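does this look right to u?? flavin-adenine dinucleotide version
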Amino acid sequence: MQQFSGERLSKLGYWRVGGPMEDFALVESVEELVELYPKIRWILGNGSNLLAPDQGLAGLTVRLSLKETEWLPGDRLRAGAGLLNTVLLSRVSRQGLCGLASLAGVPGTVGGAVAMNAGTALGEVAEVLEAVEGVDARGFRSIPREELPMHYREGGLPEGFVVTAAIFRLRREGLEEERQKVNHHLQRRMATQPLDLPSCGSVFRNPPGDHAGRLIESVGLKGWRSGGACISERHANFIVNTGDATANDVMSCIRTAWERVRDHAGVVLVPEVRVLGDWPVEVWPLV
Ligand SMILES: Cc1cc2nc3c(=O)[nH]c(=O)nc-3n(C[C@H](O)[C@H](O)[C@H](O)COP(=O)(O)OP(=O)(O)OC[C@H]3O[C@@H](n4cnc5c(N)ncnc54)[C@H](O)[C@@H]3O)c2cc1C
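got this back:
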């Protein structure tokens, strides 16, 4: 295990904002995680879907370095929670297998993908997940997919459960068709999303039958700025760091979009981004 003090979230998270972590540990085994568990306050994956305050995070934050993969009988794969999705996808494809198209273009780790039930128009992680392994106050255990109430961008993990690995059920048939769909999907993302600036992807979940980006645009907020943060001109559900944004700037954009859509379009958006840390209720009313 490696431990640090004062490591800044702005160096680790995709938005490039956020203050120091009081204590930060890189955990290298399940045994270490079990030992540290009672002290853990925050879990960090690859930081591609979270916002933490400029004051930083009090207490212990952990990130898992568990990156190993193991092939199991029947085209099943166990992947460590710290493995990057890009590495996972390339290992699956090198075996001539498919099934994880839902993670194409989604930054982050296996742990974050399961916790978020990450996905795209091509599907979501829940569809290929067989089980998760992890640690909570009861110790180490494995939970079958059927016991997780997963839904749109919600992993349904028990409170405080830290994912250490996920088992995916993959398939051989349809590989070429999946490759074509993924290529088309990635081209579309490049054409429609502001991928040249730091962001955390979509900030809000799409409400049933609508798109958060369309709603934010409809209330006139495309291009709205707070300090160095800006509601993207290209895709209004993205908030981008134009260079020197603070976490407060990003939060100000999130809050303005949330309030304006509620007041002018009558829709209460649900954040997709996870807000970590202690935010005053007047700054973030959904704490
Ligand atoms: C440019 C861009 C595009 C994106 N596009 C998409 C998209 O198309 N679809 C999509 O679903 N997401 C998208 N995202 C968001 C993000 O990539 C996903 O939500 C991703 O799954 C988060 O993984 P992470 O490892 O970065 O998790 P983090 O952002 O570090 O954490 C996210 C949440 O998961 C929890 N968590 C992380 N690891 C664990 C663990 N081991 N055990 C328990 N909890 C854990 C964290 O505590 C936090 O609550 C995008 C982000 C960016 C920057």
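The first helix runs from residue 9 to 12. idk if thats expected tbh
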